[in-house]
């Protein structure tokens, strides 16, 4: 047998890549032609747009977002500082409303999803970092909904991907008649993800700062760490110390 040349290796890699792309694109075309996936995309667009219009308008009119949250709370302190950044605060609101409007217009969904994505990922990471109840469940679900819309817009966004070869897929046109086959597997996965996200919000952390001193103290009632837990809650809601410091104090108190 002769040696395998670099040309043959490159041809094989090209063939393998094109084969994978062709397999995915066939699956993608089937999805775009299914009424249930189409309705789900509209559902995601409307919910994501509504959330950012509400949050964005609060910033544009100059009000502090989540104004009922104490400035001593980790998220409250962040939002209070953000509120005092002047036109940067307004800029964030404008970006959120713009992303929402782009999602509502069928021809600009891809642009809206691209603009929306870094904003909502930042909110998700922030919510998890400070364990903020207000968006602990919604933000990761919004990230996933945004990802679905990015995949939904694959035909418009694929040239941004680091692929060496592209097919002649073009822009997938709206079918004359949608398939009505219900995608049980897909919606089962969606239901499982929602359930896991909610479960993580309830059971993922032993301790949460909650949004008020009273709610914070409730999670420690009738437990062996009730006194230490109350001290933790006071550390957050009365003393206004950083979350990590209060968690460290709770851990040390629990060991005694």
Q: Could you tell me the radius of gyration in angstroms?
A: 24 Å
Q: State the domain count.
A: 2
Uncertain stretches:
none
What average pLDDT do the residues reach?
91
Q: Helices and strands: which structural class? A: mainly alpha
Q: Which outline best applies?
A: elongated
Largest sheet: none
* Quaternary: single chain
Beta content: under 5%
Number of strands: 0
Helix count from the secondary structure assignment: 11
What is the ordering of alpha helices and beta strands? HHHHHHHHHHH
**Terminal residue distance:** 73 Å
Percent in helix:
55-70%
Give your account of this protein's structure:
There is one protein chain. With 256 residues, this protein is mainly α. The protein has 2 domains: 33-164 and 176-205, no CATH class; 207-256, no CATH class. The protein has helices spanning 6-32, 35-60, 74-83, 87-104, 109-130, 138-152, 154-157, 184-203, 213-218, 226-237, 243-255. It is elongated. The mean pLDDT is 91.
